[in-house]
Write a structure and sequence with these properties.
alpha/beta, 9-stranded mixed beta sheet, motor protein, cytoplasm, GTP binding, P-loop_NTPase, cell division
């Protein structure tokens, strides 16, 4: 089962490389779902010595005050016997350290790069992997030591800042807590036990480690604590004996220190009966075994999270679109395909599959009839205007039977006002077609990917609609002009003439223009104009639909496609230039997706082998 911890280490390193450790997100990430062990303790509690004993190497910075100023994620990988030990930092991926004094210096230097040469702290972790035959597979997170007071050069908030940082790790349900407490201090004041109890009141995740047992006052011992009598935890306390400062100064070998630790517990009467579960070696093996157990129990939840995240990543990548083709043919095909999708959406709006096309019918069914009704023919056909136009049309000789030229002028002056509603119908439909272009662009996800192409397609579509509008306006106004240029003769042939009514054509000119006579002319003209309005109410929509709507469906981007074939690759590339943020986002998502798929395969393989 050692491979299981190695697998988790591998996934954690990959998560960290991609920034997928959930520090800035409220959503659970793969990093959060993977079990780890956080090492918690007060300053000078012996945390660093415990870690070095587990690793078997001197590699951590030492000194007074706050030495650990950034979290250190330490991943241990067991090698075969005889293999050479080495270490790697995630921020220096191609460099192997075989000199562990250089490892210590790099930890210090990397801390200073983030915090400066001050006593400030940072929550940005350092990731270190150590490969050795003398370790067990394990992941440990060394956190800054808890403190009760700020020292010179530190802000007053340092106490709370460190506590908040520690809590951010140990509050996670998948985090095991290694609580380090010195035996030569009152356990009731232990910072590690206090904060562990707050986040893990049942003790399900807390392991107590007692350091500096050999430094207790004469006549005192820690047997009651180690036996669980003084302070009981769910898991047995483990005592360790670290190297003294004199040993460190003399560069006492860690292997020799482990041997001396075993001898101390085996030969000390107070601890002899507990020696089988004391010491750094037992601590490392016990934590490794427990970590394996926890990982196994979390596999179903990890699999569920991985599967859910893969689905979300695939969905977002689909929304962002595919990467751009490299060759000119591929770029041209991409542009044509995107335009085809836009054109299809536009047609769906016009055909009623999507909303919007119904507004065009509203122009014909409501706006045009209302505009025709608002035409003030009564002003054109007032007594004064009829008398004026009839008189002017007669010229020097009054009409003999019917004032034909007067009729024509009255009809033409009335019909010409219909040009306004006809032109307004063309403009109204043009406005709707333009709105649908903008709406269709916003509904074409692929166009969101390429701002330059989006603008070019929008401009090309609007230019096409403008040309169609001009053609439609000419055709529609011609309908009105045709009605003005040639009157329907049958309408007038059916009208009774003056002589048929017993009229006398020799009446005086004054009698010819009496109100009754003029009123009858006005009525006749109004009837004819209304007949023409009824006809145009049906023919204007046909002209508009034929010249604008039908053409928009048939050839909205035809001119753009013609020009597209003449474009150079450089210009095609500029059309497919993406927002750099989108490109960066797609690349990051693709890497995360690759990570999660790899993790899915590895975790599934482990699950099936259980």
């Amino acid at each position: 089962m050692e491979n299981l911890i190695s697998l988790v280490n591998k996934i954690q390193r990959a998560c960290t490389a991609l920034g997928d450790h959930g520090e800035a997100s409220a959503l659970p990430t793969l990093w959060d779902s993977l079990p780890a062990i956080a090492v918690v303790g007060g300053q000078s509690s012996g945390k660093s010595s415990v870690l070095e004993s587990i690793v078997g190497k001197d590699f951590l910075p030492r000194g007074s005050g706050i030495v650990t100023r950034r979290p250190l994620v330490l991943q241990l990988h067991k090698l075969d016997e005889g293999a050479r030990e080495y270490a790697e930092f995630l921020h220096l991926p191609r460099r192997r350290f075989t000199d562990f004094a250089a490892v210590r210096k790099e930890i210090q230097d990397e801390t200073d790069r983030e915090t400066g040469r001050t006593k400030q702290i940072s929550s940005v972790p350092i990731h270190l992997s150590i490969y050795s035959p003398n370790v067990v597979n394990l992941t440990l997170i060394d956190l800054p030591g808890l403190t009760k007071v700020a020292v010179e050069g530190q802000p007053d908030s340092i106490v709370q800042d460190i506590e908040n940082m520690v809590r951010s790790y140990i509050e996670k349900p998948n985090c095991l807590i290694l609580a380090i407490s010195p035996a030569n201090q009152d356990l009731a004041t232990s910072d590690a036990i206090k904060i562990s109890r707050e986040v893990d009141p049942t003790g399900e995740r807390t392991f107590g480690v007692l350091t500096k047992i050999d430094l207790m006052d004469k006549g005192t011992d820690a047997a009651d604590i180690l036996e669980g009598k003084a302070y009981r935890l769910k898991f047995p306390w483990i005592g360790v004996v670290n190297r003294s400062q004199a040993d460190i100064n003399k560069n006492v070998d860690m292997i020799a220190a482990r041997r001396r630790e075993r001898e101390y517990f085996a030969n000390t009467p107070e601890y002899k009966h507990l020696s089988h579960r004391m010491g750094s070696e037992h601590l490392a093996k016990m934590m490794s075994k427990h970590l394996e157990t926890v990982i196994k129990s979390r596999i179903p939840g990890i699999q569920s999270l991985i599967n859910k995240t893969i689905s979300e990543l695939e969905s977002e990548l689909s929304r962002l679109g595919k990467p751009i083709a490299a060759d000119a043919g591929g770029k041209l095909y991409t542009i044509m395909e995107i335009c085809r999708l836009f054109d299809q959406i536009y047609k769906e709006h016009l055909d009623g599959v999507r909303p919007g096309g119904d507004r065009i019918y509203s122009v014909f069914d409501n706006q045009l009839p209302a505009a025709l009704k608002r035409l003030q023919f009564d002003k054109q056909l007032s007594m004064d205007n009829i008398r004026k136009l009839i008189t002017e049309a007669d010229g020097y000789q009054p009409h003999l039977i019917a004032p034909e030229q007067g009729y024509r002028r009255l009809i033409e002056s009335s019909l010409v006002t219909i040009r306004g509603p006809a032109e307004a119908s063309v403009d109204a439909v043009h406005g709707i077609l333009k709105d649908l272009v903008h709406k269709s662009i916003s509904e074409t996800p692929e166009l969101k990917q390429y701002p330059a192409l989006r603008a070019e397609v929008g401009n090309a579509a609007i230019e096409s609609l403008d040309r169609m509008k001009e053609e439609s306006k000419k055709a529609t106004l011609k309908l009105v002009d045709m009605e003005c240029s040639y009157l329907t003769v049958d309408f007038f042939r059916k009208l009774p003439q003056d002589v048929d009514k017993g009229g006398n054509p020799t009446h005086s000119l004054f009698d010819r223009y009496n109100d009754s006579y003029l009123r009858r002319i006005g009525t006749t003209v109004l009837s004819y104009v209304n007949m023409v309005c009824a006809s145009l109410r049906n023919s204007i929509p046909k002209s508009v639909v034929y010249c604008q709507v039908r053409e928009a469906k048939r050839s909205l981007l035809d001119h753009f496609f013609t020009e597209l074939g003449k474009m150079e690759q450089k210009y095609l590339s500029s059309l497919l230039s993406e927002d750099p943020a989108v490109m960066e986002r797609r690349s990051a998502l693709a890497k995360r997706l690759e990570l999660y798929r790899s993790a899915q395969a590895d975790i599934d393989a482990v699950a099936w082998s259980k």
